[in-house]
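Honest question from a wet-lab person: if I give you the sequences of every part of a complex, can you actually get the arrangement of the whole thing, not just the pieces? Trying it with mine:
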Amino acid sequence: MRRLSLVLLAGLLAAPALAQHDHGGARPAVGEGRGWTGAPLLLPAGARGQREAAQVKAVGIQADSLAVYAPDGPPEALRRDFPVGPEGARIASGSPKLGNYHWLVMREETPELVKVASSVWYFGNPGPSPRKLLAESRHELEIIPEPLPREHGSYRESEKWHFLVRLRGAPLAGQALNLETEFGTRTSFVTDQSGVATILFPRDFRPPRDKAGGHARQSAKFVLSTEKIENERRYLTAFNLTYGPDPERERSLAWGAGFCLAGMLAATPLLRRRLAAKAKESTDA
Amino acid sequence: MLERLFPTLSRFRLAVQLLMLVVTVYGSVFVGSYMADKISNALPALSCAYDQMNGGYCVLIPTQHILHHRIGEAMVRAQQLTLTMVLPLLMSFAVFFAFFFVLGKAFCGWICPLGTLQEVLGRVGRRFGFGLRRLSADDLGRTERVRPVKWLILLGLVFLLPLLTGLGVTPHALGNPYCDVCPARIATTLLTGNTEQFAVPIDDNVKFVLGATANFLFGFIVLAALAVRQPFCRICPLLAFNSLAQRLSPMRLVKTRHDNCGKCSICTDACPMDIPEISREEGRKAYSEDCTLCGRCAEYCPQDGTIQLKWGPFSLFSSSRAYYKARVAGELPDGSVKPLKFVRAAGKAAGTDA
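Yes, you can. This is the full assembly:
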């Protein structure tokens, strides 16, 4: 007990560097978007230190404020606008029990162009599901994930996920949806009759192998974008988040099967000894 | 109708177990992805968070994460322990125990998917004639000697290591060590066709060791369950966790003294956890920390009203001689099916002879 107390005390005094661990479905990776896409992006800026707040930077889009929509809560918490400064916007969840996923939107508007950048932030704030949050139409042209990854889940290489494209709240069929990833993949998908595009995340991961602290889950940025011209006005909308590598890259099925077989071998005597005893009983009889 | 469908308590329990296996492993298919996430947050059940199709959530995961990320890291930051750090943990416990207050330890015997899988394997073992091995003094050793293991796993892997990891004492790979060695994680994900958890991590030595341990345990349990009933339940930290509240729950096992107690020991033979106390003790002592409230002891007790499953003042099932006679005619206490006897009809035999 005394030794344990000393270990605990040592841990307290050591005050080791902290890093965050991604619980959430998916969170945007920290970094710039320039170079791999021209689409507007909402990206986290700086280190994540708090669960309740985050710094988000806009790339390729300019606006005075960033709107953060919560899944639930009082009217003042359902939509909160955060001013955008040189370092981006400091966003926060309104109050507890609003729901994990929050919808982030920035809008830039000129007579010729309506540019919308959207993303989600997982606050770790259990509450209602994001179903209602995603069902509500807020801008002319929207890209809506259907569904968002669950807790402990994320978009990953080689996986197929559905995204709905809406125009003024109605599904938009036959609409091209462009996917760009940080690793240079550029591909296009088309929505079906129900306005849903099935996106196959490319197997293009080149892990940076940054193991500092062992905390950071590897992830890379992607953006989906689509555009529509109506009445000589161009609507450009993007949704960006992160995807992870195929977990099989860092796992071995062969080792798994090997250790499983070893366990089975270890359990074999439990079966054999009894069978031998039964055989002996039969012989005696 | 119900009596024809479920002629015995065991048949009814099997139906509940299979239903809950589907719900806890494939729940999101029925209730939707987001609803399954909500259920996961609200309903602690041994259904792996690594299974992205499930509709439940194991309380051991939030416990480890809260100790690691909330309490441990907050203690390092603040150099002090405040109520706000402990509150999430207390909330997790409160939700968990509220759930167990209603169900009691029946969760283990009626809902747990890993328990169900082991039981199904045990039935396969009986069918294929693998003799039953018992944790008793005359076979594999006394069951009481294994009991501390589950408490050590609960304290070490669920509480201590995640906290030490949050404090920065142990590496991040030890943040949720119990999940990393848990065979239920492998079993439930394999049931959804996902081999990711079966594959052992090879990018980190600590993770490799934990993953290897999980796969070894999984392989061991799959085969051992053919001969030993509920092999993993005996060391499961969730059993230890919920036994903390077993005296508070209205759902419980009640045993009264009978002259034959300790002599026939049929109830212990029927018990999938080989609990000797059910045969020789009475009252609180008979309701052991290992009990999963499966009710087999009550089914196989030949004395009227000696063993009962009760919820508060209500008796849900009570032992009776008549039930015992009918029950033992179909299945022996150890789960073996009684061999069928083919007897020629008397008249037909007489005609043939003539």
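Two things worth pointing out. The CA atoms of residues 149 and 198 of chain A lie 15 Å apart. Chain A has four helices and 17 strands.
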